[in-house]
Amino acid sequence: MADAVQTNAQPHADAHAHPSNLQHHFDTPAQQFDASKFGMWLFLSTEVLFFSGLFLFYTVVRRHHPDAFALGSTFLDWRLGAINTLVLIASSLTMALGVYFAQRSMQRALVFCLVLTLIGAFTFMGIKYIEYSHKIHEQIVWGKWFNPTRGHEAAEHENAAPHGEVASQQDAEAAEPASGSHEPQPAAASAAPAAAIQSQPTAASTDSAPASEPALPIEQSGIMMAGNGPSGLAAGEEVEEKGEEPELDTYALAKQRKDVHLFLGVYFCLTGLHGIHVLAGIVMIICLLIGAIKGRYNSDYYTPIDVGGLYWHLVDLVWIFLFPLLYLV
Amino acid sequence: MADQVQHGSDQPRVGHLVPWTTLLLTCFALMCLTVLTVYVAEYVDLGRFNIWLALIIATLKASLVCLYFMHLRYDRSFNAIVLIVAILTLMLFIGLALLDTNSYADELYRPDWDNFAPAITQQRDLAP
Amino acid sequence: MSTLDASAAALPAADLPAGDNYLTCDRGFKSWAFTLDHKRIGVMYLTGILIFFMIGGLFALLVRTSLPVPGVAGQAKGPITAELYNKFFTLHGAIMVFIVIIPGIPAALGNFVLPLMLGAKDVAFPRINLMSFYFWCAGVVLALTSLVLGGVDTGWTFYTPYSTTTNTAVIPVVAGAFMLGFSSIFTGLNFIVTIHKLRPPEMGWFKMPLLLWAIYSTGIVQILATPVLGIILLLLIVERAVGIGIFDPALGGDPVLFQHFFWFYSHPAVYIMILPAMGVMSELLTVFSRRHIFGYSFIAYSSVAIAVFGFLVWGHHLFVSGQSNLLNTIFSAITFSVAVPSAIKVFNWLATLYKGSINLKTPMIYALGFIWIFGIGGLTGLFLGTLATDVHLHDTYFVVAHFHFVMAGTIFTFFGAVHYWWPKIMGKMYNEALGRWGAMLSMIGFNITFLAQFWMGSLGMPRRYFHYDPFFQPYHVASTIGAYIMGFGFLLTMICLVHSLFRGKRAAANPWGGVTLEWRTASPPPHYNFDRTPPVTDPYDFNLVRYNADTDAYDFIPAEERVAVPAGHH
Amino acid sequence: MNLTLLAQSDRTIFMPEPASTIAGTVDGIFYFIFYVSLFFFVLIVGLMFFFIVRYRQRTPGEGPKTQITHNTPLEILWSVLPTFLLVAMFWLGFVGFLDMRTVPKDAYEIRVDAKKWTWEFIYPNGIGHPELHVPVDRPVRLVMYSQDVIHSCYIPAFRVKRDVVPGRYSELWFTANKVGEYRLVCAEYCGEGHSDMFAKVVVHPAGTFEDWLATADPLSALSDEQYVEFMADPQAFIDKYKDDPEIGENVQRLKVPALLGKALYEKKGCSQCHTIDGTDLPDKGPTWKGLFGKTETFSDGSSVVVDRDYIAESIREPGKRIVAGRQNIMPKPRVSDRELRQIVEFIKSLQSD
After folding, report:
1. CB distance C330–B111 less than 8 Å?
2. C-alpha distances in Å from residue C243, one per residue of A72, A75, A170, A261, C494
């Protein structure tokens, strides 16, 4: 049995040559590649079912409160949603191209694609952050804290006790998706949508405020609308002028109804969970980027890029469904 | 399941190479569909069918992403089976749960909305 | 196959040089904490699970201890208040279900045995395997946190709106269950990939040991059902933390939706618990009756069938919570269809015993006990699947007894499996007498405990009651006495296992005469499992081995000798 | 806990005493399944023990007598045969269950109000009572709602159970066919008092239920003079008569109308829009503090001094006259005349200081 002692060491010196990036318990790179991809697909199927819960929640609530959904979705700006959809699709493309270049062992192109994907991810989070902070500002939030208030009005009752609570509650939430938004890109990217919004009566006035200084609401949670006072006020007047025209005031309507907050609850759950997945994706892409810069991946071994790509595409898939369900009710 | 290792010379050692033109075309198609879905939702009113149309378009986009971006079209078929099984389970879950939700919609009351308005008014059909 | 492998396996393990096996090849805390070796991870799971089994059992005894006297409405029973009692049964349920039984067979024993049975060097994703173990640890820590924070009183089902309104430490324990869920998902994922991709080419699907079929089916359920638990627990946390109003009717939410989510996972979870046990059964019964399994394909397919049906029956937990008649009917019908594959298994096991050579070693006693216990557990399921009777029995002790009979079936098989693979895992033989006593006592105590509960349940005793109608006192007293006998039995079992570590004699490579691949390597196995890739054979062909009186163990018969042996005889 | 359920004679060994029309069916199905299961259990376990004894290993390493690996016809047989029994069970249970769910049109409706950890039964005449009293041989329909968490209304003797879910009406029906006292318990875990959340169920002999209902409300037991006296100064009246041999027992159950009104204020949801501490909710309803006797001006300019009649009107037909500056958002609550009187008494008692 003495030979057994040596044979224990064998697996690395197996019959066939064992490439460095092939783990000891696999025989061939193909086996390892297939195993990893298969594993990732199984994981993606768990993700699908993970989201399925929220989709059921969405459907049930919508079944019981159809009007609330119609009304609630007017608080979302489909332009921002659409832009985010396009951003994600683009980043999906760059990811897929990244896999392509990895397969062709084209290091530079791979790195470039990953950087583009990363930018896309940050842009998405930036826009999401703008949407969130605007909703927080106007108390268009979930549950018993739902109390839609136009920007300038919000500035007036800032001393309302539950209100401060909401804001702080909210920033805790908003903070994490927003983490990306300290990057230069989102501010720049969001300038465009914000501008587009200004011209819109229904679209909320104050998008521009957080866009100009993203970090602001997080610092001063309770009294953040005081910080936004001027811009909020200015935009508010504009809204009032539009308000002259006999168009229905969604804010007042929503206040009367007792179930509109449910839509916002669904909205924050779905986009929040999706946002967390995007953040995870950002971390993942950064790791891949480091690996790519170190030149770890080539046509022989690009499994991490491929598998990571699958995950990123799933994030895209989920959003493809979220967009029409939430923004285009 | 085709053996992954034997591919053309331009192919990587494992996996399948999707030409970049295909990827660009896919992306373009996705963009167009996004514009379409927005257009339909905002400017075409089909009443309650809007949501279904939106979902159909979304499913179309999703399958494009799966087939080309995620290589499912060239991949081992078992991976596709995994995804399909997951989606079937999802439908099963949502479907059966909704069957229940629909049935008790008329038993609901909101204490502060319709102060204990008339209880279950009509007998619901009991034969399955 | 060459004669080499046979002779290698035939060598008695006794003269293995020390420091050669996976336990001794590498020492120190780090070598365990960061190990990627599936065997060590399995051992760590096993240790943790056995410890928490004892803790969960302790809570069970506390529950039973507070019940022999009916008590007076609104008053405490000595030191035990109603609130405390609620925390007892909640923690008993949560620990046993999420921490012990679900990972019990797959994570602990599956981790150790599955790659060995495949003749593989490790599972497909060793890192993910270690990660899921640490998820398990995190879950345990969170559960303990809630214990420190004063416990939880929601019942292990966390039904809303009670769980969203009670002021006990719900969030930590729910977060714990969430982590444990992910641990379970990754284990299942790992095993499915392993079975698909690391199965030796010559081992076709129908040459796999039935345990692998069972674990595979379990994996399917783990992957498809557990995420739904994850999301609902997440929603529950969010609801408690920031009041999103999903489950709060006053805000337009729907409390019953939670039950759909919860049971969509938790019913399949029952099959996550029972399927591996059934797989183990097929191994134990064949080895200890020296018989080829009867009706391999029927048993294999019935595992998959149970897994699939498992997804279609969750609604039978909602028969009286106002679910629509149509849905009740559908779920009742499908529930009955689960009985068929279960029955198939039981009948085939019986047929396996027929004309066997039955050897009543401890694992076999557990296995036979499973037939008795699962028989009762399964048959009483019929009362609950039947709509009209379920209305009366729902949420009574009848249900409690029913699912204890099913889940304890898993626990007993788990212990059978622990005894069966103990020599392979630890390289030591346990004390047979002690093992048998432990098995018998715990099973007798168990039957007393829960048969009494069936009885009072059908007589209308609701579950989770602290005070009860004095009419039921005799039943409760009997149940409590049984519980203590059972507790003592399990204590003996634990003593038996610990004792074997110090006093047990060295185990041979193949003490029971199994022919699945794990018995072809030394006990305990070397770090890389097999010195030579083992030959794949029919997992139930017991003509491959021969009894060796000197070692009181079995040796694999070298190929050329075996040609002479006529099938069926030695 | 003095009344012990099932103390009665004719209970079967596994089932409590049957006291409703469906109990018979349920017990029948139960025992059918029981004997079928018993048969299979004895068969399986019997065979098992027989094999253990007959085929036990005598010498270590002894081989088996056979190695048959399968017998497909046999396996198919024992897969298919049980199926028929299963179908039978399912069908019986299904039919029995539909009977439980199909409420007769003429059922006598009683509201059940469940909260931690008490049951209140509200009879058609508006009287709330902690005990469930029902006439024998008459279908009774319980319409149940919960104020806090999920409870479950379970009457073992009637073999009926139904969860009481907050946010929706749950219904349950039965026909008690046996006079006597039974027990209603909560079957869905609802917290600390879960096991103490039980109520007495009394099945009245034919004809006597109405008499009980008539006297169930302590007020109804009072003569007209006594009633007037009571309304004039309830507390004094209670103190005066609470030890009275005839009506004392009744008087002790009397509550000051204002107190009853306060209970209704919570229960009927008035508290959602009307405060009683003087703070006015502009977009909701006026505060009740100091409302009585106050002068309200309507949107059409007319005005009125708030009195019993005006309150009655604004509860009965909220939209008729809208106070200036308020929206017409008040829903129409269901209140009996007696409840209305109690609410008025309550508002009256809320004088502004």
Report:
1. no
2. 18, 20, 12, 11, 45
Q: What residue ranges do the domains of chain A occupy? A: 67-327
CB contact under 8 A, D169 and B126: no
Cβ neighbours of A46 in B, within 8 Å: 86
Nearest CB to D331: which of B114, B119, B123? B114
**What tens digit of pLDDT does each residue of C119-149 get?**
999 999 999 999 999 999 999 999 999 988 9
Question: Are residue B66 and residue B102 in the same domain, yes or no?
Answer: no
CA separation for the pair D122, C156 (Å, rounded): 34
Q: Please state the domain count of chain B.
A: 2
Is residue C240, in this structure, part of any structural domain at all? Answer: yes
**How many domains, in total, are found in chain C?**
1
Query: 41-70 in B: which are within 8 Å (CB) of C?
Result: none
Residues B69 and B86 in one domain: no
| Low-confidence stretches of chain D (pLDDT beneath 50) | 1-8
CATH no. for residue C35?
1.20.210.10
Length of chain D: 353
pLDDT at C55 over 90: yes
SS3 B105: helix
Nearest to A60 among B20, B54, B98 (CB): B98
Q: Is residue B11 part of a domain?
A: no
Dihedral pair phi/psi, residue D168, rounded to 5°: -150, 160
Q: Which of B27, B42, B79 is opposite residue A37, by nearest beta carbon?
A: B79
- C32, part of any domain: yes
φ and ψ at B88, to 5 degrees?
-60, -45
Q: Do A255 and D329 touch (CB under 8 A)?
A: no
Q: Look at D64 and C289 and tell me if their CB atoms are within 8 Å.
A: yes
Is B85 among the domain residues?
A: yes
Whether residues B58 and B88 share a domain: the answer is no
Instruction: State pTM to two decimals.
Output: 0.82
Q: Which of B40, B91, B64 is nearest to A327 (CA)?
A: B40
Range of the domain at B65: 17-75
Q: Read off the amino acid at residue C310.
A: G
Residue D59 exposed, middle or buried by CB count within 10 Å (0-12, 13-18, 19+): exposed
Confidence of residue A152 (pLDDT cuts 50, 70, 90): low
Residue C19's pLDDT is: 53
Q: Is residue C74 part of a domain?
A: yes
Reported as a single tens digit per residue, the pLDDT across C11-44 is 444 444 445 788 888 888 888 999 999 999 999 9
Domain housing C132: 13-561
Which residues in chain A are contacts of C226 at CB distance < 8 A? 46
Q: Which CATH class is domain A67-327?
A: mainly alpha
Mean pLDDT confidence for C69-78 = 88
Nearest Cβ partner for A317 among B57, B65, B76 = B65
**Residue A131 clears pLDDT 50, i.e. is over it:** yes
Same domain, B21 and B71: yes
Four-point Cα dihedral B95, B96, B98, B101, nearest 10: 180
Q: Indicate whether B62 and B88 sit together in one domain.
A: no
Contact A93 B26 (CB under 8 A): yes
Q: Which of C165, C344, C396 sits opposite D79 (nearest CB)?
A: C344
- pLDDT computed for residue B6 by the predictor: 41
pLDDT above 60 for A232: no
Contacts of B112 in chain C (CB under 8 A): 250
Rounded Cα distance between D175 and D160, Å, is 11
CB-based contact C341:C309 (threshold 8 Å) = yes
Helical (H) or strand (E) element with C4:
helix C3-10
B58/B106 same-domain check: no
C245: contact with A, CB 8 A cutoff = yes
Residues 48-67 (A) with a CB less than 8 A from some CB of B = 48-49, 52, 55-56, 59-60, 63-64
Chain C neighbours (≥3 Cβ pairs under 8 A) are A, B, D
User: Is residue C5 assigned to a domain?
Assistant: no
